[in-house]
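Worked example 2:
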Amino acid sequence: MLVAPKSTRRLAGLAAAFSSAALAVTLAGAPGAEAVKPVKPAKTLRVATWAPAASAGITPGVQTNTAGSGQCTANFVFTDAAGAVYLGQAAHCASTGEATDTDGCLADSLPLGTRVTFNRGGSLLSAGEQVGAGTLVYSSWLTMQGRGESDADTCAYNDFALVKINAGDVADVNPSIPFWGGPVGVNQAGTAAGDRVYSFGNSGIRFGIEQLSPKTGISLGTDGGGWNHPVYTLTPGVPGDSGSAFLDGEGKALGTLSTLALAPLPASNGVGDLFRELSYAQQFSGISGLKLAEGTEPFAPIL
């Protein structure tokens, strides 16, 4: 097991009652790109209609509350070959262990089948309005444990989960990223230092004011063989932003927010590479035809 200095901390979700905002220490490093071979998804059924982006209740950026764990931010919408719809979040949003239990191959997690609610306007004082619900059906942490994954870097940075949206709530879903639009596909090339990135966090620490959610900044490059993108944004991701989506400068889905660094790049965030996280899920989740749903709104960066 690779053990790193306590220089980075995982962005833990706020507690279920929004009373805890502790950050957990994470392992450093990331597996090489060769560790995961992308799987071409099967042809998928297109959802007949998405809800209008302006009125949809369930979108990327909606707050997620995983029973017994805490509040996080959803990243992207996904579909499968049977027409089911999923919302992505960080695997550590279902953590039940100590704040320092951050190795995904060892850390305790709520089981698959755990209920997750989708909320808007949640704050430190209230969970906000529930706009839907779903079930945890994939966790990279649980999958790696079940497979006996032994690569320390994979265990540290593969931090991705899927919540299957209840059938009765699918009609209220739109896959567009609020404020920015997109995604227009999946980034497969990584980022270089100085590349512009865009995100939408929705921590309850901001008291549910979604106007404070859009963030833009720059990538510090790609490390760990492509599995991690350290980034700086004007205001860093904080507890409750965990799992939120990052887009590259072309509007492609780049990654999911996972960590907050204390050193050597204080207040930078670690963004897990979506292409590799999704490829792992396509290989090992058992979900046929799993793929990213592209936004109905054009990518239009205005900051």
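The longest helix spans residues 274-284. Residues 36 and 264 are 28 Å apart (CA to CA).
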